[in-house]
Design the sequence.
């Protein structure tokens, strides 16, 4: 697999942003997958499919910054997103055009 294609896959611990909220830094907590047999293949052969990516982030404080200092249990949020709605944090910081370009190339894989 080429290095360019490897960038399209997220793994646990990666920093990401949602395409509709690129200023919120999230961390990939886990990749949610299911195993299914594929029609037309050997019934004992299973394929793994990604059904979602669970991300976590710290709730913004009153000053609008995400802070890990002085946090409470309720300050940490988590949600499951579709992989096509996430972009790497580094790409999100480059701006809207860079995110669109990254998402466009991610669809082609």
Sequence:
């Amino acid at each position: 697999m080429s290095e360019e294609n490897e960038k399209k896959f997220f793994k646990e611990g990666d920093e990401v942003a949602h395409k509709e909220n690129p200023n919120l830094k999230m961390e990939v907590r886990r990749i949610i997958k299911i195993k299914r047999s594929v029609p037309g293949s050997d019934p004992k052969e299973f394929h793994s499919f990604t059904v979602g990516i669970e991300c976590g982030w710290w709730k913004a404080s009153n000053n609008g910054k995400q802070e890990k200092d002085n946090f409470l249990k309720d300050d940490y949020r988590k949600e499951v997103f579709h992989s096509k709605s996430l972009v790497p944090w580094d790409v999100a910081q480059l701006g809207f055009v860079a995110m669109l370009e990254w998402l466009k190339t991610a669809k082609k894989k």
